[in-house]
Amino acid sequence: MKTLDVSWLPSYKYGHHSLMWWGLMGLIAIEGTALALAAAAYLYVWSQANVWPPNAPPELFWGTVNVALLLVSIVPNHLAKRAAEDGDDARLRLWLVVCLLMGLAMLAVRALEFTALNARWDTNAYGSALWFLLGLHTVHLATDVYDTAVLTVLMFTGPLEGRRHVDAAENAIFWYFVVYAWIPVYAITYWMPRLG
Amino acid sequence: MNPLLERTWRDTGFFSAINHKTIALRYIVTSFAFFVAAGILAALMRLQLAVPENDFIGPDLYNQLFTVHGTAMMFLFAVPVMEAMGVYLVPLMVGARSIAFPRMNAFSYWVFLFGGVMLFGVLALNIGPDTGWFSYPPLAGPEHSPGKRVDFYAQLITFTELAALLVAIEIIATAFKMRAPGMTLARMPLFVWAMVVTSFMILFAMPAVMFASTALIADRLVGTHFYNPAEGGDAVLWQHLFWFFGHPEVYLIFIPALGFMSSIIPTFARRPIFGYPAMVLALIATAFLGFGLWVHHMFAAHLPELGKSFFTAASMLIAIPTAIQIFCWIATLWTGRIVFRTPLLFVLAFFFILVAGGLTGIMVASVPLDLQLHDTYFVVAHLHYVLIGGAVFPLFGAWYYWFPKFTGRMMSERLGQWQFWIAFIGFEVAFFPMHTLGMDGMTRRIHTYPEAMGWGAANFISTVGALMIAASGVLFIVNVVRSYRRGAPAGDNPWGADTLEWATSSPPPSYNFDRIPVLGSEGVVVTGLAEKSREVLITTVVDAMPDHRLAFPNPTIWPFLSAVAVTVMFIGSIFTPWAVVWGSIPIVVGVTLWFWPRKDETREHLALEKRP
Amino acid sequence: MRVQNMFSVAGPQAERIAELWWITFAICLVVFAAVLVATGLALWKGRKGTGSGHGAHLAVASAVGVSTVLLLFLIVASVATDRALAQIDASDALKIEVVGNRWWWDIRYQDPDPSRRFTTANEIAIPVGRAVELTLRANDVIHSFWVPALHGKKDLIPGRTATLTLRADKPGTYRGQCAEFCGVQHAKMALFVYALPAQEYEAWAEQQRRPAPPPADGPQQLGHDLFVKGTCAMCHAIQGTPANGRRAPDLTHFASRKTIGAGTVPNDPQQLAVWISDPHAVKPGVNMPAHAFLKREELAALVAYLGSLK
User: Fold this and answer.
1) pLDDT by residue (tens digit) across C36-76?
2) Where are the beta strands (DSSP E) in B449-587?
3) Chain B interface mutation, best of C142, C151, C161, highest count of B Cβ atoms under 10 Å
4) Cβ <8 Å between B362 and C71
5) Tens digits of residue pLDDT in B195-223
6) Domain span at residue A167?
7) Is the whole-model pTM more than 0.90?
8) CATH topology of domain C218-306
9) Is any Cβ of chain A less than 8 angstroms from the Cβ of B313?
């Protein structure tokens, strides 16, 4: 019997080679669609309204602080991804800790954002759509921060194997999604009411 | 049989089981049970409607019956059973030892099961949802549906869409990354293509109903105003969100059945499918077009006329890819050497029933016609013709076809033919009269009707047909039970088919294949995968070139426990929004421990590790 | 004539729709037959193993081509019919506002002169040959207005106002019913359209504009007093009396209506007596409370008074 010997193949790979990447892309497709639909619902409520927004628009300060934090967090996130792909445990630990701290800061600022929206979820449909859109993104953010925390702890306690670097690299991709998804959400909820 | 591989890959407990075949069979049996339960509800409805002004079942119970019938059929039977057939067959058809993310697969089953139990549980307590499977606000909103009934419906959606989304991810990952070497995309079986296309549709369609139902629960529980026109919301928003999901939903059910057709017809025509590339493109075209039809459910609502015409055109044009499939199947049969067996018989019903249903679909795709036919029994006829003719009959064919593979035994041909004819005739008797009833003015979702309308005779006939369908169901169950115990041994490949699931034993061993074939090279097999630990070969997406080896997880109880935690949170949040907060804690704990690597497994992996 | 059948057409729109149906049905029947014949032939040839693949690609491509052409034709026919339905001349239309409630239809005849407006319930009389412009709104949940002899249906959606313009070209009684699930008595929300020749319609409308006749005898007077001073007036209105409730059907000319409860039971004294004392025995779940506390002569008085409101 002729054979194809695969024992020499690596036991993990990064990026789109990895199964985890495909799982993550599926998750991003789902959550991206959900965000897009939440934004569409927000815009739909707008299209039905006579006056927009019915309340004052959300206060700019904390939202803009968070945009800045999110964009800045791309740097440690990218460095963590590189460290993972290089298999460098020490660098990975460092940048994961930085990401984690930034993530916690972003969650704290997000909590402050919620207090400065100028609308409650139960005031009117605008408030409901606004809270839902922000809330959905917050769930993604919180999940991402938690995942980062778990990976960070794991990098310190072990047990470790090469595949954990793939997990860390994939987590970085999810972080990109959370950051980039925020930009249109921010634009729609904070700026469109001021310009439209 | 390879005892070492068997020991490595077998499941070790009931709650910790993760083998894709075990999970798939649980899914199939459970969704069949929901099918039977929902069918009993329909039989009760038909008994109530058999004569005018009947008082066998009052309006409140009737409304719960039709709501749970539709909800269970769509969310607990039709989509899950198709997914389950994919969960069983896709890894085998692509030559893999497992499905991707097997623990997530087990988790999805438990979530599905608990959701379904919740729905039927509340129906048994007479607090079942009662606003239809489509549950339009404001009727389903807090003002007109007080209590928890509609919340159970909305949360049932959350359970089932979570399960379906996870399975979709697994199927895509398996089909793209775990195919046997040499199985290029152009060699991938049409059933796998169908499941991949379906899974992509799920990723983009299910979030819409998730959003819609969550917003509905929020309106009801915490006072949001998504669907409240008095505060800037809109009842039509629900309709857009629901049908943006709802139309693709029927294709989630239909497309896998197209995959069954394309598996069974070539086998019994004893030749490969005619027009493979056109068949693949037709599947993809159907999926894309399927997202562009949803407004045809809303033609009577207050919407701009020009927009509606666009949806008429799209709804009619989607017939073209389906027509391509039908013509290619006919060509396959025409140029084959046909062997008539029960699976083929069920598949042939498609040409009679689905085609008729598709043609009535062309009718209701037209705005003017739909304005007369919408919300009448004509639509009830149409939807059952396409779903039963297009999905359920092929599904029964698929069960007769793959039962030998699942169990190692053949089903009875005689009982199969009896079941088929009683089901087919019963179906026509039950549903054909509904066309005329609709044109005669009988609206949907009414628990009774006046004698003077003259609808009694057709309704009575329809009820007789429904009971015939029930009888055919009983025959099927009898056939399954008897064949499972005493059916003729099947052997590896009783039908002489050419897809990979038939190249292993019936039922397959836990590890599916001892020797994974390399396609395109005669007689070459894969070696070098570990046998003492669960190692799987990952290949490239387009050409299936070997890419890397991957260690797969062992059985574990964490998926089950996490599903329990999710259930507690979902059901708790029907009663208080705070359940989302405190209910998340056990879930977080569960999935963290699920993920957390074990020292012994890590050591095993390190022994086999090779860096990229 | 079957009263709710889409082919028992009495107006131009229902007629156009029925025409489109027959064209579509004919095409679909031919296609269905062709597919069945092709399938049958395929099974026959395939069974014998004699089916030649010669020309199969051309055959499949042609079949797809023919199907596409037929579909395009049907799309055009559908859009053309849609346009035609909207062409109805509404310049002199009679304007009526229909408000959907659970489970009855509030019918308000409009007029630029307020003194010529009047309100009724569940039954609409219209003049033959003149366009009627219905403004459709809903008070509670989504309902749907559907009288198949005249036109397709249109939803009544809370928060939105829709319009449906139709015309009856033949005198007659046309039945419809609510066509959007609206709760526990959705099945019992019928409506009746009476198409009357122009003069008869004018006479009917004049009668509807008049306030209710005063009570003519003792029992009717007692009934009137019970109605006006009791709970009835909290929900119902009778023009010409102090009863001015807006939450339930207007009863000014109740005795001219053929049914009680939007088609649920005929409007005769026995049924009315049962309805008043316990509407839930007739139509469980309706908003109207029971009045079992009424004494026999009080109930009879109410029935007599309401029966006088022609």
Assistant:
1) 999 999 999 999 888 788 889 999 999 999 999 999 999 99
2) 524-527, 535-539, 546-551
3) C142
4) yes
5) 999 999 999 999 999 999 999 999 999 99
6) 17-47+59-195
7) yes
8) Immunoglobulin-like (2.60.40)
9) no
